[in-house]
Amino acid sequence: MNCKLICSAFVLALTTTGAIAQDIPQSQVPAVVVNSFQQKFPKAKKVDWELKGNVYEAEFETGLFGIDQEAWFQHNGKLLRYKTEINKRELPKSVLDRVKRDFPGYRIEDAKKITAEQKVSYAFEVKSRKEEWKLVLDPQGNVLTKVRD
Which residues form the signal peptide (predicted)? Predict the structure, then answer.
């Protein structure tokens, strides 16, 4: 329950701060943040920076096919959260089993792996012809958030 509350608060904070986010050039990002980013993601391409409150967000691509990724940093360079696109086949079996059980006949789209303070979760959409849901599950297949879209 506590994890659900934390995840819900985090999602709410990200969506509400998004309204006041501003794009900034890398030259306005503190050097400690840029250095931390470059150490953690040396192969990053097409990096765009945003300032959301006091958190720096880097949106970037890696790999041959330009996998979309995002990383959030504190002003001191500490990585807070990291999100990367994944193929739905990369979801853990327990997550896939939960979707099959709770959403039979739905298809999975827009899968992402999220790491925040050594805790991993998986966010994705499940869609049928009549409805769609946004889900966040932990690696064991427990539903952390479930929102009808």
Answer: 1-21
CATH of region 88-148, choose from 1.10.760.10, 3.20.20.190, 3.90.1010.10, 3.10.450.360: 3.10.450.360
pLDDT tens for 20-73 read 678 999 999 999 999 999 999 999 999 999 999 999 999 999 988 889 999 999
Does the reported pTM lie above 0.90?
no
Distance CA 99, CA 94 (A): 9
Q: What does the alpha-carbon distance between residue 7 and residue 55 come to, in Å, rounded to a whole number?
A: 17
Distance, CA of 74 to CA of 52 (rounded, Å): 10
